[in-house]
Amino acid sequence: MYNPTVARLTYRAVLGRRRAAILFILPALLLVMAVAVRSFNGADDQIAASLLGGFGIAAMVPLIGVIAGTGAIGPEIDDGSIVYLLSKPLKRSSIIFTKLIVAIAVTMAFSAIPMLIAGFVLNGNGQQIAIAYTVAALVASIAYSAVFLLLGTVSRNAVVIGLIYAIVWESVFGSLVEGARTLSVQQWALALAEDIAGEGLVGSDVGLPLAIVLLASVTTLATWYAGRKLRVLKLAGEE
Amino acid sequence: MSTHTPGPAPETTRIHNIGYRNYEGRRLGRAYVRRSLYSQSLRGAYGLGRSAKSKVLPMILFALMCVPAAIVVAVAVATKAKGLPLEYTSYAIFTQPIIGLYLASQAPQSVSRDLRFKTVPLYFSRPIERSDYVLAKFAAMASALFILTGIPLVILFAGSLLAKMDFSDQAAGFGQGLVSVALMSVLFGGIALVLAALTPRRGFGVAAIIATLTITSVAVTVIQEIARATDALDVIEWFGLFSPTTLIDGVQTAFLGAVSGFPGGQGPGTGVGVIYLLTVLALIAGSYAVLMRRYRKAGL
């Protein structure tokens, strides 16, 4: 299933030149904020949780997921060079699987590692907060990568659609409509964090078993459908 | 083809006049090109004159901007309220995520495609200067944004008059709101165009614009909240300088009688407000300068 050559090419596409810059800026921003807050304020569990949750999980992880997930396949479809890959004797599903692995690895590296460091900087992993949010980031990385990779194969406006989901659906709708929160990757990931962290520091609207089932099914479904989509891919011109 | 024996050219060779004529009409010139570029870019920002597919997103976002205003007006008229439940100036701050998404989807459409498909040299083969192209694109993006943020204010104003609220109060608020969204349109439009022009690849420019407009404002708000929680109230107004949204918020709090959206309403006073205004103007001038620099080697 996993093809090292495809993986190498995808890594080059995702981390190439300027694209990597934005992947570095966001975690750097989180770390700077963590250091600033710690030096202003000292260690505080509540503030650590609100910074990691409010900025890290709510803004940083989805954005990195969008960039890595759509970046793994979007530009190739966009400039048409995907046909060279598709004409090789490789299964379409294994191309998608490899690209998914790369997207997950990149998202994890750029979201979970800074999250862990920021957590330790903020309060030295008091009440398991750093670990809890890191696990949430790891899990969210998998689901986001799969969903956004699918978006990359479905639409040319994948990044915008992904951002609309991440910003409008999860943040704005999620804060207004109770039910919208059940259908959000962020809440599913937080369900795991809730289980790990100390009492009352992390809140999620979804129960843990339901969250795990939803995470697993969304990831598999998205990957399967992306593979199907790649089999019938039509290269359209610029609109 | 048979080989000719070299010799003197036959004397029958001659150039015929087959009736091509020179153009002797009026040349439309720079101003016309600039105007066309402006109007085409402005129409393009709403998908007009482009495929049906590319109309969907800007129109949806435009509708999303107007719907809350319409709801507010409907509620105000139905309950016969004395004033609108929200200020004109706070509307754009409240809908900032939608504005960010609109810019992220349309600014790359406006400039990135010309760069990606190397059509910029074709523009410059016409009698225009670099500044014409940059100014036209800049003005078009700012106008598109002004329409996006101004129309909801018009709806609010019209609604407040329908609900027979005090005219002078509402007119003053409406005026302040328009000034604030005009400033916001130029600032945001400039920043978005710079990012889009520097990142011609599809998708990446979108992410860069969102990161700059929305993520910085999230980050600043989180830091301000933390500062408030630790009673460091006087640093709140300084952190506002670090994101475009809070910059506009600060300027309108200081000069346009807005209620600050900063945590605890700790908006800047007039003194710090001047720094806010200067920063905004510097950013606008800076984005124009960067755009001019970007197009110095157009097509590369």
From TrEMBL, chain A:
Pfam family, one: ABC2_membrane_2
Domain of life: Bacteria
Residues passing through the membrane, by range: 21-41, 47-74, 95-117, 129-151, 158-177, 206-226
Keywords from the UniProt entry: Membrane, Transmembrane, Transmembrane helix
Example of a GO MF term: ABC-type transporter activity
GO CC, one annotated term: plasma membrane
This protein's name: ABC transporter permease
TrEMBL record, chain B:
Highest classification ranks of the organism: Bacteria, Bacillati, Actinomycetota, Actinomycetes, Kitasatosporales
Keywords: Membrane, Transmembrane, Transmembrane helix
Superkingdom of origin organism: Bacteria
Record field: transmembrane: 56-78, 138-162, 174-198, 204-223, 271-291
Protein name: Membrane protein
Species the sequence originates in: Streptomyces inusitatus
